[in-house]
Amino acid sequence: MKEIYDFLLNLEKNNNREWFDENRETYQKTKQQFLHITEILINEIRSFDSTMPFQDPKKCVFRIFRDVRFSNDKRPYKSNFGTFIARDGRKGGSPGYYFHIQPGASFLGGGIYMPEANKLKAIRTEIVEHTADFLELVEDPDFTSKFNFFSDDKLKTAPKGFSKDFEHIDWLRYKSYAASRSVSDEELFSPDLIDKIVEDYRNLAPLNQFLNNAIDQENS
User: How many helices (H) and strands (E) does the chain have?
Assistant: First the structure.
């Protein structure tokens, strides 16, 4: 893990093509290490999430190259490694499990981030129709003591098509149903890091199951 960490730390300080080309061999080595971590996580997730197929780790890991076409930030590379493990792949739009390594800003999480409109409506409908089941998941003390939900661009009012009088309307105002926790630099170097990640993914699995059920109902 230290090689990955050191490479990303140096990349953050030298985010230019010349430096990257000079250190491409190190990049390839650390990328392979991260792919190996992803492969381990896939296999561990499959032990408790029956919906997760075996898949190529390369299809889970995000590219390190930034798309700068429409950005004021022209740095060519991300200063992180990220992997998203989901039943239909990183690009399939399903809930899954995320791991992000970035010096000083690492985190892990699960759920679905900014889903398409039809999937978002299906999730909100499932929450309305199975409120008690949802609250049992997200208000469990073991869950809330670890994870926080992303609240980016949270709606200020009830979403279209849903009653503002719904008792738990706050839960319908989310645009993402994804929960995460930070991972300290110290934890990254812990010998039991993978065990801790897998334990947290196991705790996030019921949320993913709820979200998948909602999406499957919409698709049926």
Answer: 8, 5
